[in-house]
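(Protein data)
===
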Amino acid sequence: MAYEEYWIKRADARMAQVQSGSDQTIMAVSEAYEDAMKQLNKDIDRLFFRFAGKNGLSKDEAEKLLNETLSSREVEKIRSRIDTIQDENIRQQLYARLDATVTKARITRLEALKEDIYIQASRMADVELQHSTSRYIDIIQEEYLHNIFDCQQYLGFAYSFSRIPEKTVKEILKEDWSGKHYSKRIWENAMVGGEKIEEVVEKLLLKGTLTGTSSRKMAKELSEITNVETYACERLIRTETTYFTAMADIEAAKGRGTKRMQFVATLDDRTSEQCRKHDGQIINIEDIVPGRTAPPLHPFCRSVLIDVIEGLTHKVRTARNPKTGKNYKVPADMDYKEWKKKYVDSSVLCAPDIDHPMMQQAEEKFDELLNKNDDGSNLFEMMRMCKDNAAYIEDTKLDNAFAYFSDSDEIRYNPQHKSFADYDMNFVFSHELGHRLDITWCHSWENKEFMAAIDVTRDKLYNEAYIWQTAILEGGVLHEDLAFNDIISALTNNTMISNGGHSYEYWTENQQNVPMEIFANLAAIKITKCKSYSAAGEFLKELFDAMERMI
């Protein structure tokens, strides 16, 4: 199957699935609307049955009834309905509103009825907000993973990726893509003919009460209002579902290096003219604007975005099992549940979140550094890949502050180590991830060009020994540059005095340690753009060139 045809088919299937998943949310909100109106109908029936009996009430009798003072027990019953609202701000506002009414000399049945209407309207909005927000979070997270699965299954192999960060999910949820946030639109949807729903219901009930309209007829009119509100609720949820689906697809696409996406309309007799005009258009990711260049273009929009194949670059290189060296496969007969269990839930390709607050902050800052210093070279793309699915494990028994363990493919850290807080965390991340990149992908110790570059650089060092020894001694320009000092230590088996280099025993006990540490330190130097990147760039040129070609 052609790439574009495959993506359109999968994207349409995902959109149908995600819209189907929103049915339960719409149903739950619709039930809340119906329950609210049923409660009002019960209150009306109770009121009229108790005081009017079978003969009804005259206008004067109705007015007298509505102006009667409520008992404290009846007031508490109204208050108990506020307790069911989950949103703390809305709940406190309703308490304050009721208390302000109660603190008057008396609260009449008319005022109580108004409060009850307002509470029921607020409860409807609260239920919709709670259910829809929960649903939107699920959409973002699940669509993101489904998109990655579809891409990997087309390619036939797995590549490393990260879970969509909680910070990104929150940013997507906060976005006022259509000019108004969905939470505000929920409250605006509580409008009928330009009036707030509680005002419309209040007028209806008062008019019905004072004109002798039967409770059955008022119930019917309340049902009609509910139908209007239910439709507005469904329209909002369907449209926002399309938006959040598109945003999750964009995040998944960016994660694998995609630069452009294609607008794809669902073409049938319901397709809007707007979507027909946009169908097939190619959009740069940075130019995507939901509602203008990307879905949703209108209420109930079903259009989707798919990757443009030229964007699949470094990120989709197959991931290798660090123990066996074999590629991870995603065959055509593997379904999403099996893929998620094997590669996501087990953290094989998608690592668990970092628990330690300092490490969380350090990772965010490292992300910023990667974006700031990115020079377009392969190293930055591969470093992101290594970072995104790395497992960071707290280990208080660790002898060092930080270390990469290749057997378990984990970066471990000991926050209780005396030097833990003293490290430059950007150096730590780039160095340890450099080890991970080397061991799982590059195998520097097996690369003839890289090993030859080490010999060339070692010869240069001995020929210029005075220059570089002076540079790394105390007071020298590179004395504080840990990565460069460790490279000097590796090249000389620590026979040249350096600041913080590994020991002679470390370099000589395993010949692979030299290329592995040089690789990790070169990665740290290039990623962080530390002093040695400019001061010793020419000296390290052969090593940098060999590393880039290896990646």
User: Anything to note?
Assistant: The radius of gyration is 33 Å. The CA atoms of residues 300 and 548 lie 48 Å apart.
